[in-house]
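Reviewer comment 2.1 asked that we show a complete input and output for one of the modelled complexes. We chose the magnesium ion case, as it is the one discussed in the main text.
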Amino acid sequence: MSNKQIDRRAFLKGAAVTAAAAIGTHMAASSARAETTTNSSEEKEAARPSEKTIGRPGSDFMVDVIKATGIEYIASNPGSSFRSLQESIVNYGGNKKPEFLTCMHEESSVAMSHGYAKAAGKPMGILAHGTVGLQHAAMAVYNAWCDRVPVMIFAGNFLDADKRRPGVEWYHCVQDPAAMLRDFTKWDDQPASLQHFAESVMRGYKLATTPPMEPVFITADGYLQEAPIQNEKKLHIPKLTRAIPPQGDSGALAEAAKMLAAAERPVIIADRMARSQEGVKRLVELAETLNAPVLDLGGRMNFPTTHYLCRSGDRRATAGEADVALLLEVGDPWGQFNTVSDPHHEYRRLGKPDLKVIHISLAETLTKSNYQDMQRFMPVDLAIFGDGESTLPALTEAVKSAISIARRTAIAGRADKLREDHRRMKERNRNAASQGWDTTPVTTARLAAEMWQVIKKEKWCAAGRQDWPRSLWPATEYYNFNGGSGGAGVGYTAPAAVGAALANRDQGIITVDIQPDGDLMYAPGVLWTAAHHKIPILMLMHNNRAYHQEVMHLQKMAALHNRRMDTASIGTVIENPNIDFAKLAQAQGVWAEGPISDPAKIGPALTRALAVVKKGEPALVDVVCQGR
Ligand SMILES: Cc1ncc(C[n+]2csc(CCOP(=O)(O)OP(=O)(O)O)c2C)c(N)n1
Ligand SMILES: [Mg+2]
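Response of the prediction step:
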């Protein structure tokens, strides 16, 4: 035995070494810590199991409440402010509905929930640890807010200063936990009793899932969690109720129908509109009734890319020609018909001067003023307060009644040209995609095309970067595209795709993610979460070894200032050393291959990766790509 080993023994003398070896490393560490922190006899007394055991803590009831909402998962990075609730979830609740998902960053917890909610059609929960957890969660909450997506945010906090343990607990507690997020959550509460908690969770769930859907925030007070339930018979959990989304006023719809029926060049622009396949179907019916081209802005999957009325790839031209535009839950109405140039900030009108605009939206219920997600004010001719998907059937009926027999012939006569326009758009997309087909680094279009070859026979969902897939892949189902980040806060894509994959897992839908490198590096631990919880996802790295958008911004500024451009890489490229994404993934238990530079090698690697995903596990293929 070496001296070194003897020294170590001496060092550990007194700690529960033997027990530790038997129960595994993580438990060993905790017993050693307990030994060193409970040094006074009083503290030792308090730590010993005794009559002080609490059989039915408040957090058990909190779990009953969460179960009553149907929330299936709670994504969380653990923290002592909710240790009791966590213990109740896993022991009392059996770690099923909700199941505790281990996350390595609160931003991942929220973004996973964001992606999950859009794919599952219902929210899941996150649990954040007081001040520090909420600060990490904040940007992802903002993305979900901008994207009008529900997330049930729970946080631990000890409000009663008399009960707080000295030291760290004070740093992690806050007088008004929701203050940090209040500008971009729909509602919040800090319940002072268990009954209050039950009612607030039910109210919060209802508010979060009533369009426009948004994150809500509810504190689970630490003392309320840990203290025994008093008078349990008096507690009750109100039943979950959901509000029916409002349909636009029928008089206003008749007016809109008249305008649309009389239009020579109507256009429909849909953004965060559809919530289900029903929404897609309803939009197809309206568009066909009018023979109106549809621009799907991609906030949701609104319209089949295969339909002859899909003109999403001709956005500017189609909107610019329109005489009447119907907007459906469009996040940025002004930006569809106006622009401010870059880099000179000069205003330019894109729409016709006499364009008439109808907007069906619930945006007017969102009245927060600090963050600027409301976008620039645009006066419209007919603003109909209503939910897009719910209003479409009544609008379609009104349009059918407003179309005279003579108009019907004229409208039907538009079809040939529209079919030709659609065909040309597709041809142009394919031509654009074939540029530089065999080049190295690989083009982004080639990346998308290779992915398509591998998944085309599957039920698929593209949850990552969607620009090329939207123009190249034939998509007809709501679940095909999972929309965007909302607030363009980078770090969304990877965790949101994992969240979508979690929702898709049980529906036999293969989730694929064309994954930017900079985005993954914000919180790459989400790969471990995917591996640990067996969330199948096919991640294809769009590894341009850069914050490429920022490279382009720097180049633009250098040109504007008439200065050298080679410095645009400073602070914007992710090279020297290059990140080995296959190793990053493998280190976390994810099957991975790469880096691949030869485009011919992408397809076979993706086929191998898909086999792993079909076994129920995540896989990553790293491809060195061009900029955007
Ligand atoms: C949280 C956050 N920080 C910074 C930015 C600014 N930003 C916009 S795009 C971008 C680059 C992202 O890099 P990557 O994900 O690799 O995508 P790429 O531009 O290379 O395609 C950055 C840093 C942002 N949008 N969000
Ligand atoms: Mg990049």
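Residues 516-518, 544, 546-548 surround magnesium ion (ligand 2) (CB under 6 Å). We note this here for comparison with the apo prediction described in Section 3.2.
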